[in-house]
Amino acid sequence: MPNQSGNVYGLTILSPIINGADGDVSHECAIRDYLALLPRDHRSPFARVSSTHMARLVVMDDVVFVGTPAREEHLQSKYLVFESNFDGDLDTYLTRMAREAAEEVHTVWRHCGGYPGVEDAAAFIAYMKKCQIETTFFFADVNNKIVQQTLRALKVQTGVAHFIEANQGKAAGDIQTAFRQFLEKVRTAPEPPAGFDEGHPLMPARGDGAQGRAEPRAGEDEGHPNG
After folding, report:
1. For residue 40, what pLDDT is reported?
2. Strands 21-22, 8-16: parallel, antiparallel or unpaired by DSSP?
């Protein structure tokens, strides 16, 4: 079904960027400059919208006509392309964007034609739906698993890797004892928040394992959940 894969919703938005300048800088350059400064790790505004599996913002300059017969064809304006995969329904997600990432959303979309601001959530939702196109092929990092389940699985995987690294060469009895302790940590650990770090119970203390090498935080890879 378009836009939906199990619990995961695939959203694609194309918002026309205002032609002309915003002061001394064009609107599209203002967007590019701001996006270049946005963090892509646990500090990302979309990590705050915690149902987000992934989100991506790009400026589309033009498209190339690939039909037959070939002809030159251009867009009337540049477009801001926003893609996101998230848990739940569209209205709730857009409301959360307007509330939980209001500053970043406004700074980006104020350069787009017809944007009504985020103060009126209903108007913002209506605008985004007007710019929405159907999503029939989208990224889903796991099949029908919510963000918290995915994060927990990733952190257990990281914990197992650290466990193996830290216990190489030990006696079998010591490894069994350590593994039982590890399993108890897994069983009792709280749900990891978006972008959690070394302080989580599943992570070893600094210095354990290979010289305490820290694993990347959730979201540090562009395609990673909350990225």
Report:
1. 84
2. unpaired
* Residue among 104, 26, 37 at smallest CA distance from 61: 26
| Tokens linked to 20 | 């002309």
Instruction: Tell me the pLDDT tens digit for each residue of 12-54.
Output: 999 999 999 988 999 999 999 999 999 988 889 998 887 888 8
| Integer Cα distance of 98 and 120 in angstroms | 9
In this predicted model, what pLDDT tens digit does every residue of 128-166 receive, in sequence order? 999 999 988 766 555 677 777 777 787 888 889 999 999
CATH fold of 4-133: Alpha-Beta Plaits (3.30.70)
Judged on CB neighbours under 10 Å (0-12, 13-18, 19+), 32 is middle
Cis peptide before 190 (omega within 30 of 0): no
Residue ranges, comma separated, of all CATH 3.30.70 domains in the chain are: 4-133
Taking CA atoms, 191 is separated from 114, 153, 163, in Å, by 40, 10, 20
- How far apart are alpha carbons 182 and 189 in whole angstroms? 10
Q: At what angle do helices 147-166 and 172-188 cross, to 10 degrees?
A: 160
Closest CA to 94 of 49, 148, 58: 49
